[in-house]
């Protein structure tokens, strides 16, 4: 079963720390979202493997936009 990691707020991706196929553990930092001049770490909500990454550095994201998928 896949888990989608959604953007909690609108902002800009300033760092992506994983690649497709990487194994991740719950709580691991996946990327950094800048919003309102603050850097917000986005972490894995489950253990698994990165299935897809839908954002890259400098992308603008909307609230609830799918950024990553973990399977």
Question: How many DSSP E strands?
Answer: 8
The low-confidence runs, each spanning 5 or more residues with pLDDT under 50, are none
Mean pLDDT: 97
Give me the CATH architecture, please.
Beta Barrel
Which structural class matches the secondary elements? mainly beta
Gyration radius (Cα, Å) is 11 Å
Q: How widely separated are the two ends?
A: 6 Å
Order of helices and strands: EEEEEEEE
In one word, what is the shape? globular
Fraction of residues in helices? under 10%
Strand content: over 45%
CATH superfamily: RNA polymerase II/Efflux pump adaptor protein, barrel-sandwich hybrid domain
Question: Which labels suit this protein?
Answer:
71 residues; mainly beta; 4-stranded antiparallel beta sheet; 8 strands
Walk me through what this model shows.
The chain is mainly β. It has one domain: RNA polymerase II/Efflux pump adaptor protein, barrel-sandwich hybrid domain (OB fold (Dihydrolipoamide Acetyltransferase, E2P), Beta Barrel), CATH 2.40.50.100. Helix content is 0%, strand content 54%. The chain contains no helices and eight strands. The strands form two sheets. The chain has a four-stranded antiparallel sheet, with no helix packed on it. Strands 5-4-2-7 form a four-stranded antiparallel sheet, with no helix packed on it. A hairpin with a 2-residue loop joins strand 4 and strand 5 (38-43). It is globular, with a radius of gyration of 11 Å.
């Amino acid at each position: 079963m896949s888990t989608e990691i959604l953007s909690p707020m609108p902002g800009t991706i300033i760092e992506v720390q994983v690649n497709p196929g990487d194994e991740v553990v719950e709580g691991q930092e996946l990327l950094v979202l800048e919003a309102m001049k603050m850097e917000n770490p986005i972490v894995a909500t489950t253990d698994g493997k990165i299935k897809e990454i839908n954002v890259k550095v400098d992308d603008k994201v909307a609230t609830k936009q799918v950024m990553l998928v973990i399977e």
